Amino acid sequence: MPTISLRVSVPICSLRKPYAREFLETETVPPPSTVYGFLLSLVGEESRQRYIGTQLAIAVFQHPSVSQVLRTSWRTKSREVGPGIGNNKIPNYQEVLTGLIFGVQLKQGEPLAERIQTIFAKDAGGSRFAHLKRYGGLSFGESRDLVDTVDYLPTDDGSCRWLTHNPEGVLALPVWVDHVGSKGTRWEQFELHKGRWNDSLSEEHWMTIQPRETL
């Protein structure tokens, strides 16, 4: 099946686990919900609802290293002072990833895939991004964590680990995140399988971006 593919390099990032509190743990594999949000940012789309139903396949080329940092987190403890002042800040340990390189494939012909294809297409002068309208830095995970490179249609057939569906898999990752409470967050079980970037993808490789209530 023809696909649109990207290879993404992120020098440092944190993919915070939704229920992490005092110790801010990170996922070590890019969650589908985070990859979808990254793709929306890439094309300059502000509405998460725009491309519901998009199907993604995700691979990890380089497994990142995990380290810990001490950072200041904001909280609402006192309404008498402003955000991040006095009791409204607290030190927390946070896990961060370094050296994450992952790939994502979308089925050719899907609306989001076509939009990605459009922004990378060259214009009459041989320049790309003539049709791209977006603002701010391109991040992955937290807004401070900037992406280094995005390779469009990478041609190498390097080894990788594919994120695949498995009801008994050890990786519980969000496919859709409900940012107002957690009732609508959709989780799925996954595992990583060794393979190559140009492998033929089966049904287990594809995940559909949908809120929980639409299933």
Q: Which structural class do you get from the secondary structure elements?
A: mainly beta
Number of strands: 10
Question: Which term fits the overall shape?
Answer: globular
Q: Label the CATH architecture.
A: 2-Layer Sandwich
Largest sheet geometry: 10 strands, mixed
Rg result: 18 Å
SSE string, helices as H and strands as E: EEHEEEHEEEEE
- Mean pLDDT score, rounded? 89
Given the structure, what is the number of helices?
Answer: 2
Helix content: 10-25%
Distance between the termini: 25 Å
Low-confidence stretches: none
Give the strand content.
35-45%
Question: Could you say how many structural domains there are in total?
Answer: 1
Q: Might you state the CATH topology name? A: Alpha-Beta Plaits
CATH class: Alpha Beta
Sum this structure up briefly:
With 215 residues, the chain is mainly beta.
Characteristic terms for this protein:
ten-stranded mixed beta sheet, 2 helices, 215 residues, mainly beta, Alpha-Beta Plaits
